[in-house]
C-alpha cells in the first residue's frame, strides 16, 4: 500500500514552499501518496494520514496556542508526526539554548529576560560588556521582531526593547560579527541533517546594511564547497544532535565559525527551510528517511 503523507504547511504557502515541493515530488516518486495540508485548516482530517511531516508552518510563532493544540491533537490521535510533538514543544521556545549549553554544547551566550522586564536588558548588556547585541522574542521565527542594538541604549532603542519584551519572554545575545561579515570566515553556516546524518551544508549571508540572513530580509544562500575545515565544523554540529533525548528526522544546525570552533546559534527542528535544492539527492534522501520512519512506526 502507498502510505498517505501530509506535508504540513501554512496559509501563506498552501501549495508548499519551493523547497518542500522538491520533497513532495521525491515522495511521490518513491511510492507515497503525499500532499500539502494547511495545519490550521479546519477542513483537514488528519486522522486519515499515515504520517504528518511538519514543514513550512511559518506562522506557528504568531499562533503558538493554536499550533500547540494542533500538535496535541496529532499526539492524542497517535498519528506518526515528525519531528515529534515532544521535540517541537521543546524547540519552540529559545530557552532550549540554555538547555543545550548545560549539556555541553558550545553556543552563543544567551540570556532569557522575562516578559515585561525590558528594563533589565540594559543592565544585562552592561554587565556582560556587550557593545552590540541582538534581542528577539523567545518564541519567534523568520527574523520576527528581531533587532540588533548598540549599547548604551538610546531612547529609540529603549522603546524597541520595551515593545519586544511586552510580547513575551525575550532572548538577548551578543551580536555575532561573523554573521554580517562577507568573505572568508563570514556568514552563518547551516548544516542539514537527515536522520542524524549530514546531508549538505550551506552558508547564509545578510544583505548590505542588514544582519538578518533570511531571504525575506534580502539574505542569500550559497552551497558550501567541501573542505577539511568544513568537515570539522560539521562534526561539531552533528554532536549537538547527540545531546537530544531522541534523534530528529530532520534538523538544521545553524551557527558561526569562530576560529576552528562551531558556535551554535539556532537548532531548527520545527519548520526550517532545509535548502534541499543545494544538496545533490537531498530531497530523495529525505523521502527515503520518511518512508523508513513510517515503516518502523
Distance between the termini: 15 Å
| Strands, total number | 13
Strand content: 15-25%
The helix/strand series, from N terminus to C terminus, equals: EHEEHEHHEHEEHEHEEEHEEH
Mean pLDDT: 92
3D shape: globular
Q: How many H/I helices? A: 9
Strand order of the largest sheet: 11-10-9-12-13
Classify the fold: give the CATH topology of the largest domain.
D-amino Acid Aminotransferase, Chain A, domain 1
Give the tally of structural domains: 3
What does this structure look like?
The protein has 297 residues and is an alpha+beta fold. The protein folds into three domains: 4-91 and 285-296, 3-Layer(aba) Sandwich (Rossmann fold), CATH 3.40.50; 96-106 and 178-269, 2-Layer Sandwich (D-amino Acid Aminotransferase, Chain A, domain 1), CATH 3.30.470.20; 111-175, Dna Ligase, domain 1 (2-Layer Sandwich), CATH 3.30.1490.20. Helices cover 32% and strands 25% of the residues. The chain contains nine helices and 13 strands. It has helices spanning 18-29, 64-76, 85-91, 96-102, 119-128, 155-167, 177-180, 228-242, 282-296; strands spanning 4-9, 33-38, 51-54, 81-82, 111-113, 132-137, 147-150, 170-174, 188-194, 197-205, 220-223, 250-258, 261-268. A five-stranded antiparallel beta sheet has the order 11-10-9-12-13. Strands 2-1-3-4 form a four-stranded parallel beta sheet, with helices on one face. A four-stranded antiparallel beta sheet has the order 5-8-6-7, with helices on one face. The longest helix has 15 residues, at 228-242. It is globular. The protein starts with a strand and ends with a helix. 41% of the residues are buried.
Amino acid at each position: 500500500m502507498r502510505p498517505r503523507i501530509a506535508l504540513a504547511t501554512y496559509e501563506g504557502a498552501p501549495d508548499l514552499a519551493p523547497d518542500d515541493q522538491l520533497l513532495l515530488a521525491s515522495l511521490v516518486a518513491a511510492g507515497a501518496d503525499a500532499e500539502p495540508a494547511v495545519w490550521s485548516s479546519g477542513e483537514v482530517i488528519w486522522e486519515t494520514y499515515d504520517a504528518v511531516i511538519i514543514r513550512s508552518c511559518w506562522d506557528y510563532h504568531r499562533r503558538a496556542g493554536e499550533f500547540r493544540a494542533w500538535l496535541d491533537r496529532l499526539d492524542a490521535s497517535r498519528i506518526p508526526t515528525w519531528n515529534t510533538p515532544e521535540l517541537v514543544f521543546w524547540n519552540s521556545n529559545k530557552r532550549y539554548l540554555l538547555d543545550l549549553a548545560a549539556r555541553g554544547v558550545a553556543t552563543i551566550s544567551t540570556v532569557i529576560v522575562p516578559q515585561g522586564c525590558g528594563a533589565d536588558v540594559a543592565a544585562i548588556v552592561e554587565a556582560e560588556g556587550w557593545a552590540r547585541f541582538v534581542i528577539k522574542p523567545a518564541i519567534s521565527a523568520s527574523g520576527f521582531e528581531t533587532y540588533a542594538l548598540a549599547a548604551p541604549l538610546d531612547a529609540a532603542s529603549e522603546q524597541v526593547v520595551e515593545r519586544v519584551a511586552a510580547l513575551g519572554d525575550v532572548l538577548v545575545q551578543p551580536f555575532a560579527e561573523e554573521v554580517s561579515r562577507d568573505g572568508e570566515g563570514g556568514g552563518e553556516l547551516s548544516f542539514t541533517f537527515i536522520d542524524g546524518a549530514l546531508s549538505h551544508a550551506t552558508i547564509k549571508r545578510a544583505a548590505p546594511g542588514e544582519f538578518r540572513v533570511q531571504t525575506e530580509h534580502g539574505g542569500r544562500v550559497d552551497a558550501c564547497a567541501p573542505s577539511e575545515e568544513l568537515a570539522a565544523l560539521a562534526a561539531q554540529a552533528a554532536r549537538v544532535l547527540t545531546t537530544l533525548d531522541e534523534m530528529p528526522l530532520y534538523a538544521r544546525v545553524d551557527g558561526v565559525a569562530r576560529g576552528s570552533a562551531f558556535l551554535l546559534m539556532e537548532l531548527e527542528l520545527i519548520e526550517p527551510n532545509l535548502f534541499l535544492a543545494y544538496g545533490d539527492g537531498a530531497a530523495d534522501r529525505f523521502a527515503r528517511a520518511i518512508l523508513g520512519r513510517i515503516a518502523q512506526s
